[in-house]
Write the structure tokens for this entry.
Amino acid sequence: MLPPAPSYRILIVTDAWAPQVNGVVRTLSTVAAELRAMGHAVEVIGPDRFRTLPCPTYPDIRLALRPTRRLAAMIEAFRPDALHVATEGPLGLAARRWARREGFAFTTAFHTRFAEYIHARTRLPVRPVYAWLRRFHGAGSGTMVATDSLWRDLDARGFRHLRPWSRGVDLDLFTPEPREDWNLPRPVLLYVGRVAVEKNIGAFLDLDLPGSKVVVGGGPQLAALRRRYPSVLFTGPRYGAALAQSYAGADAFVFPSLTDTFGLVLLESLACGTPVAAFPVTGPIDVLAGADGRVGAVDTDLAAAVRRALTADRAACRAYAERFSWRACAEVFLSHLVPTATPPAEPDLRTAGGVPA
């Protein structure tokens, strides 16, 4: 924990940054803005400052190319009081190596189930990937996780120094009115997010339910799904007010992912008054915990979850979302940061190989 002070110099290093559009980018950009509003100096170093190359299997994501020397110069020029390594890509690896070499303490966050994502694309077993991830995060002084169920899963896999860090929602942008007039047969069932294989969108689109299905978002699977499901409306990405109106105009939001660590879209939908249907997995079971079924449903039978969600109370959805604020999220993030002068954690030696120390 940082000692009491009116302001800090906080450096966030992340491989996920604009122009990428995903939950990690939204979380980090919003938290950085909240921290600046609280009086802290926050610098975010992302791939936009480096030469990049496309990520294999997902060319829309750009990865920094040979960032080590330039990144080290940026860190040293900023002189951070606290360093947060947000992701496990080329920038995260370079920042971790620099911190280990210089004796700087840092925190990390477990934003993405890379093991499952890689398995979905390549069929590589998840166990060696988790061993690599455990070693990566084990060098930090704390790993922030978004949900209780993710905490339990990572703890069972041998991760150490786990720290809870939930998420928030922009309650001024995501509101129940105005609503998109879809001009489609009701009920309108909506998916919002990346259109990629790990999101399991086919499980939603294959459901035999009355009404219409709408997919908002872009990604590598978009063209293939458009060809496979000609009766589904694919809008492409939407942002800002147009995105909020998309949520508000739907009768239910369907979240078929089995691999997300949280799912910001769940909170965005609820803030717009639209109930959620999902599988009972990490993310939905945590976000909807304590709602007593009033704002949606989780079920191993996704169609059954949708039918129950369609009976939920839209006013209760909005009221439930109001419990989540970005300011509270930023304050928790700040509370988990550590001074860079803190002795770094000992490397996790419970797995051989993996990330170099």
Q: What stands out?
A: The chain has two domains: 9-168+327-336, 188-323. Confidence is low (pLDDT under 50) at residues 348-357.
